[in-house]
Batch of 2 targets.
Target 1
Amino acid sequence: MPINPIPCTSCENTNCLVYKHIKTKGFEKFITEKNTFSCKKGQQFVMEGAPTNGLFFIQSGKAKVLKTGIYGKEQILRFVTDGEVIGHRGFGIRQKYSIGALALEDTTLCNFSDKTLKEMLIQIPELTYDFMLFYAEELSKSEDKVKTLAQMTVREKVIDSLLYINRKFGTNKKGHLNLILSRKEIADFAGTTDEQVTRTFSNLKKEGYISTSGKRIAIQNITALKKEIAEHNYYLAS
């Protein structure tokens, strides 16, 4: 649903690639071309295979980026939150999105069209440079993910996923992870099955490493979990 644009100058997402350059000469004219809209929890705002419509920046909220595999099985590629970008893999090279994106909570999104983005990158070299660094980092993360799926055991994959969520989203006052996911979503991200996630959770709870309350998860012994996957250099991927 379109809403009144949120001024980039008053945005609190200082890590946003656009925000970093709002004071650059000539940038102000592009801000007026930004679209802003809201998504309800569970709403899909990027459809895999749909024509590209620029990049999406999360102003506030959380979303998952996914891709459909064989037999229609979902693979969650990453989770995104305030200030992060969605849709960059299709920008400039494809006419259709190769991924889908769905809001995990009520989310506000900013969007710049392909045309506007191309003009921004041509006219503002500093922004182009930052995008180049961003793409290089994303490629590195993708390579780390491939290695993780190939070399880790099921238990290690689940632990790695929990530590990733903890690093990225933190915890609430009760110690629960700040991202509520179903067992299926954790399985789709870890590259395993619902049953294996449930079985691993059961073992981790018996060992006192985690506790659960419905879909909410709390890590009770983060040191022990880090130690289990230390040889995979878990901390290199964010």
Note: The first strand starts at residue 35 and ends at 39.
Target 2
Amino acid sequence: MPAHASQDRQSLSYIARSGFAGGVAGCVAKTVVAPLDRVKILFQASNPDFRKYAGTWSGTFRAISQIYGENGFRGLLQGHSATLLRIFPYAAIKFMAYDQIEGLLMPTRESQTNTRRFAAGALSGMTSVLFTYPLELIRVRMAFSTRNAARPSEPYHRPSFLSSMRQIYREGAPLANASPSASSSSPAPHPSIFTRFPILKFYRGFTVTIAGIIPYAGTSFLAWGFLRARLLPYPKSKGASTPIADLSIGAVSGALAQTVSYPFEVVRRRMQVGGVTRPDRWLRWGETVRGIWGVSGWRGFYVGLTIGYLKVVPMTAVSYAVWQWQRRILGL
């Protein structure tokens, strides 16, 4: 890569345009699959009102029908406001970081290897998760709430972003002042950890998320780079490909990434909604994994995978296609 090209990639203008292109791509892609995203969260987190639908394609559409019947179209988009607040910075940071890391690890076409593609994708995914995870947790809580989950004697109120954030912040407070005899006998950190570090309430499931984003983002960008290099003649693979090609390669990348990382995603969802069932303490990896295995065996780690494909494949395809389209428009 010429020296002036490397300098341009690291300029503030390039970084800003790169981040904007990624943010727009993420928002468009998430909006396309928002109803499926909510149903998948309900399945993964084993919401009692929708557990009966999990595991089949028909169950997915029956769940969508029930949500629509109870709450209208707005019910299908419940939690989407938090999604957009999260996805713009998440996608912006992810694609912007990938642009920069790609320039460092693979400055020339000859230096592009599958190992470096995977590393660039994994590092960009980890960077974006680190900065945006609290917004993801709030979104999941908003999507997890259903009418029947509320107290029967009280009317159902659709949770707002601020009310969900306040609920998460208040979790764990009662146990901080409880006597030792009232604490859970299960292994757990000191009860006052949420009092001493309130920010940790917004990072439930963070460790499993980091572990899951490595194979997900790494595989996604690896497949994206590998397929473009093999299927698109140079210099098309550097940014002049057609939208159809971008959509197709993005779809395959999304399917592979989803397959590799899905068990991590199920564990993460259970840990994220753990504050609803166990607000007093931090649910650990082993405890969550044992709970899933004890109820459903190995199949429990793939509950909702069909809807995962139905959501992730078009989402990833649209995300990559819009990202490339924005890059062309912005002169990247």
Note: Residues 53 and 61 are 9 Å apart (CA to CA).
